[in-house]
C-alpha cells in the first residue's frame, strides 16, 4: 500500500483565513479569550509561522469564530 503525504501548512492556512476575515491577531485572540481560550497573541503568531502546534480546542474556536469548515484549514 502506498501513502500519499501532502504538505499542508495549518498555521499558514489559519493566517490566510484570518486575514481574509479582516481580523488582526489581537482581535482573533480577544474573541477566543471571550470563549474561554487562554491563547496569547505570541502563541498564535508562532502557530501561524509553523513554529508551534495548535490545540484541538483552539482550532475548534478559530473555526467557530471565522465561520469556515475544517477543510479550509487543511487545504494545500
Topology:
Elements: H1 10-20, H2 25-34, H3 41-48, H4 56-66
What general outline do the C-alpha atoms trace?
globular
**Structural class computed from helices and strand pairing:** mainly alpha
CATH class category = Mainly Alpha
Report the CATH architecture. Orthogonal Bundle
Poorly predicted spans: none
Largest sheet: none
Number of continuous helical runs: 4
User: Radius of gyration, Cα only, in angstroms?
Assistant: 13 Å
- When the domains are counted, the total is 1
The CATH topology turns out to be 434 Repressor (Amino-terminal Domain)
How would you name the CATH homologous superfamily?
Answer: lambda repressor-like DNA-binding domains
- Our estimate of the beta-strand percent is under 5%
The total strand number stands at 0
Assembly type of the shown chains?
single chain
Cα-to-Cα separation, first versus last residue: 23 Å
- Chain-averaged pLDDT: 92
Residue share in helix: 40-55%
Order of helices and strands: HHHH
Keywords:
mainly alpha, 434 Repressor (Amino-terminal Domain), 4 helices, 76 residues
